[in-house]
Amino acid sequence: xxxxxxxxxxxxxxxxxxxxxxxxxxxxxxxxxxxxxxxxxxxxxxxxxxxxxxxxxxxxxxxxxxxxxxxxxxxxxxxxxxxxxxxxxxxxxxxxxxxxxxxxxxxx
Length: 108
Fold this sequence. Notes:
Largest sheet: 4 strands, antiparallel
Number of domains: 1
Oligomer: single chain
Low-confidence stretches: none
Shape: elongated
Strand order of the largest sheet: 1-2-3-4
């Protein structure tokens, strides 16, 4: 019985480690996505996104993942005078082949 408890504890730990990043992203997205839904209007490359995920967020900086039909992009925004301003933009994957990288947690 002790061995079974150890196995269950170890499995729970590993599942927690694997699931925590997804849970964090989903919670941040639920809480803050409305702040970033229309910010891509200034960037024509992000105009056709399918969905947005908030990977990191605090009162000064946010890391947002945009999934479009032809690319997957990370945009870092910095809050300046209560407005989010695009700071950097990195294409993770592109249909044209110009970018082929990965992220964790993985979102298609």
